[in-house]
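Lay summary

Proteins are chains of building blocks that fold into shapes. Our project writes down both the chain and a compact code for its shape. Here are two examples, one after the other.
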Amino acid sequence: MPKLDESLLTGLPPFSRLDRGQIRQILDQAGSRRYEEGTPIFREGHDAERFYLLLDGYLRVVQATRDGEEIIVLHISPGQLFGIAPALQRDTYPATAIAAAETIALSWPVRLWDTFTREYEGFATETYRTVGQRIGQIQETLTELATQAVEARVASAVLRMANQSGRKTEEGIEIAFPVTRQNIADMTGTTLHTVSRLLSGWEKNGLVRSTRKHIVVTDAHRLVLLSGAKD
């Protein structure tokens, strides 16, 4: 594996307080791997042997319900830690992480976790901030599933992806990673047929443009109104 450059980590929140020598130490202990779209990086319930940093691409985080169904509970963007089971005092992964696009991640053996939190300033603080944010996002998703009508849930899910990864184009706000209608159904606890019907209707009314694995939000304001969120 080519030697990784310190610039990969410089400025990323978990490592922003470290000097280049410390970052060099961290990178020298890291593994690097590329994952094709749709590849599981680890699975819920498996032993947490490594923790990770997403360098490029996007991840879907999937959890199983008591009924055995799988729900996409959040997405993870580049520059974020994931697979951080030790921060939750767990020795197994609490969810499955799947590459939502072609992805590159660094990883370290979990035995280094205590060293990182003890010796590298800011690492523990950012890790626990990330845990808090993720728990909040998951709770928000579960609350929507329990309380919102289907159209509002789907609108909320599309807006969340656009806010997290969106890039402005001439048409509107493009979701940066591939997303299928089945993915949205898995995020919102509904059926593929329902998601297809809603997206087709929204496209006809000028709210989105939707093709295979590709969504552009063309009228975010009206989509916000459908989601029930306050301006």
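And here is the second example, written the same way.
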Amino acid sequence: MLVSWPVAGEDEPKKSFELPTYSGEKPSIHAPDKPQTPGPIPDARDLYDRALLCWPAQTYMRAEVFVEGRARTETGTYLDSSGTVTTTGKTSAALVARIPLYSAAELDREREREFARRTKIADAVGELVASLADRHRMRRELEITRALERRSQERIRIGVAETSEQVRYLEKVASLESELLKQHGAIQKARLVLVGHCTTHAGDALDRHLVQYIGGR
């Protein structure tokens, strides 16, 4: 008499293969009707001025004139012909202007250095403002693409689409996630460039101003 032994898992229902989404989650197949409210974007000129003001050295783009007050008292003793000793005193006050002496060539070099610094700050401000604005657009695109990826997963489950359809959306989601990571790096680079132009105390104040716009990824 032959006895057949059940094979492990033979009676268990077979589970069809399901390709997970890129995030591993199952979001709604319907993207939000409206995008999230975009975060505030800093005013470029205001941010540029803030970064310039926290520079530790005085600017060479304008003349440097220092005005100071001075007071002086003079006393003297005189002996006249009659043998009388007379003591006199005189007090004077004056305003003195001091102008640093620089050669024309040295001033040109300093202005060139400051112009280069101003250009770097302007580039960092432009990159930061553009990246923050583009980040909102890319997040909205990611919302829609993730919904399409989830929809294709359901279409495959009920047998009206092939796995390749979901794979295409999965690749698009992965690409958008990668672009967001690169964008995050560009935002942080611009942030550090701006803070790097400041002294420690002024840099901390500027960084707190930037964080309210940058937020999280």
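What can we say about the second shape? The longest helix spans residues 104-157.
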